[in-house]
Specification:
- By secondary structure, the chain is α+β, with helices and mostly antiparallel strands.
- Helix content is 39%, strand content 16%.
- It is built from 10 helices and 10 strands.
- The strands form 3 sheets. A 6-stranded antiparallel β-sheet has the order 1-2-3-4-6-5.
- Strand 3 and strand 4 form a beta hairpin.
- Helix 4 packs antiparallel against helix 10.
């Protein structure tokens, strides 16, 4: 039987990609399809294959090669490890560590909001991932509940596929709006390129969603794009129901002005310090 979240292969799906044997589908998106697969030692991996229609486009291949180089740079236990890639294959492919577990979106949908301890662990774990992503000069640009998997060892941030290297100024200048309505920072909505502090904004929205079942500016997936954009641009966030000790960090991270938000490293350090402060109290009841 296939693991939870893995769908059977379709009639048009390949059986092998490079040295990897495909066993099922994990999902699909704008760039391609992600498969669950096994390597020659039967270790589980995730194989991302570009859509065949794009493979004939030289600019797409160049963009895919940039994505491979970017994913190679990011090193963190909170991000799936890079395994291999071939940007010159007939259908370009990229392979990362397979991470089992539900996404934050699926966990909240199926079981309700996370408890306070799990929300705090999610907040710190995703902040850790952002520190590693930003240290590699990468901006994620689409951090949301469907792109974070919950594992017993902490959250894993997926889908750097639409992220862009900060140094790749050509893409930054010419690229369109990237992200999901309701999960886009105000400066992106105003047409300014995303930065690491844009990811910090969506980090906060993610944490609010995990704690309350709704984003800071409305229910996930609810409301038209214009309404969501107006709330993000002009209205204060709704933080009712979030753990009190996280509220100051969320308020700073959701500032309309990106300069008023903490950088990911500052945010991570503040969350880690707050978690450490909790340890003596907990230990005192042992």
């Amino acid at each position: 039987p296939l693991p939870p979240g893995v769908q059977p292969l379709g009639a048009g799906d390949p059986l092998r990609v490079g040295p990897f044997r495909l066993v099922g589908r994990l999902g699909s998106g704008g760039m391609g399809v992600v498969y669950a697969a096994l390597d020659d030692a039967d270790r589980r991996v995730a194989v991302k294959c570009a859509h065949r229609a794009y493979a004939r486009d030289p600019e797409f291949r160049a963009r895919f090669a940039r994505e491979v180089a970017m994913v190679r740079r990011v090193r963190s236990t909170a991000v799936p490890a890079f395994v291999g890639a071939d940007a010159r294959a007939g259908v370009p492919w990229l392979v990362t560590e397979y991470v089992p577990g539900p996404t934050v979106a699926a966990a909240v949908r199926d079981h309700g909001t996370l408890d306070e301890a799990d929300v705090a662990a999610l907040a710190l774990g995703v902040a850790e991932a952002l520190v590693a992503i930003h240290a590699a000069d990468v901006v994620h640009r689409d951090l949301k509940p469907g792109n974070v998997i919950l594992t017993p060892d902490g959250p894993r941030v997926l889908d750097l596929g639409i992220a862009r290297a900060l140094a790749d100024s050509g893409l930054t200048r010419t690229g369109g709006l990237v992200g999901t309505p309701g999960w886009i920072a105000p400066e992106q909505l105003r047409g300014t390129p995303a930065t690491g502090r844009s990811d910090v904004f969506t980090w906060a929205n993610l944490v609010v969603y995990a704690a309350t079942g709704s984003g800071a500016f409305g229910a996930f997936g609810a409301g038209d794009t214009g309404t969501l954009a107006r709330r993000v641009l002009h209205e204060p966030p709704d933080l009712d129901g979030v753990p009190g000790h996280l509220r100051p960090h969320l308020e700073r991270a959701l500032a309309k002005d990106p300069e008023e938000r903490p950088a990911s490293a500052e945010l991570r350090d503040a969350l880690a310090a707050a978690a450490a402060d909790e340890l003596p109290t907990s230990a005192g009841h042992g």
